Amino acid sequence: MKLLFGLLGATLMISFLASFVIKVKEPAMIAVVLIGVAMMLIDLWQARNEPDT
Questions:
Q1: Is pLDDT at 49 greater than 90 in this prediction?
Q2: How far from 13 is each of 8, 16, 18, 19, 52, CA to CA, in Å?
Q3: I need a labelling partner for 52 at 20 to 30 A (CA). Which of 3, 5, 7, 36 fits?
Q4: According to the model, what pLDDT value does residue 27 have?
């Protein structure tokens, strides 16, 4: 269940940040957003084997 909610949250965050990046189009902002999305996906990948609480 945690994986499902994590994927839902990741999808919502990526769609929100994508709209922001499309409007701003600054290379520095794109780099910051990509780093943040990568960190989120790595955390989601690592949390997939943790037990649900």
A1: no
A2: 9, 5, 8, 10, 22
A3: 36
A4: 96
